[in-house]
Amino acid sequence: MNPITLTTVAEPLIRAALAEDITNEDVSTAAIMPEAHPAAVDLIAKADGVLCGLDVFERTFAILDLESNVERYAEEGSDIVAGQKLATVFGDVRALLSGERVALNYLQRMSGIATYTRKVSALLEGSGTTLVDTRKTTPNMRVFEKEAVRCGGGHNHRYNLSDGVMLKDNHIAAAGGIRPAIEAARAYAPFVRKIEVECETLDQVREAVDAAADIIMLDNMDHGTMAAAIALIDGKAQTECSGNIDAANVRSIIDLGIDFVSSGALTHSSPILDVSMKHLRLLDKETGGSETRS
Known about the structure:
The protein is built from 10 helices and 12 strands. It is an alpha/beta fold. The two termini are 25 Å apart.
């Protein structure tokens, strides 16, 4: 993750997650380890997939112990296999014990999204169609989940409502039609913002083309209707296909030559990738355990 984004956006969310898990104290850890003691623990993959979220994983422990560090044996975005040792975490044993669940939650979730995205992206390879995510993200997890999509080989659609103009069915209804919605957006929005319009029928596609939309989203159309819509657009706008697209059906749109395909499934339906922290050991207080590092 970009280090500035990690510090300004992600870290406050990580701190909030830690505060959710430790409202007063970690009673279990305080009971058995009342004082600081250097320790190490290994990060182990329990399933095959794509590794993502190491920076977030590492920052979680650094918040609890500034002297902690993570020695990595696998790279961000790399393919990993079950049983592989991915990293070793060094630090105060209290930080390792108290931060374990939060750190793993981020790493498992991000790695799961990256793994599924890699699978869907591979199905589009060579097609010229770009795979993008949506705003269907877990509340307060967007920065992590969209990073995971990129890590898995996908691309990000707009980050939030300030990032671009997308006129969906309810916007169009409120404005009284596609043309007045586009005209209002073009008059109000900064000139650097593209205007995307969601269309469900060929009549709406015609109206969006006539009103000079920058991007036309073909929403929940069948294959034949999408083909007709793309012929109507005829290069006058970029095209996006959306609506229940996932690994099971994404190849069905390859022949259309559409510019973008957006899939909410990348973030809302990806299973986690199982990883765990194992083999915790206390290290010598005098050396800090430095002799155990590879």
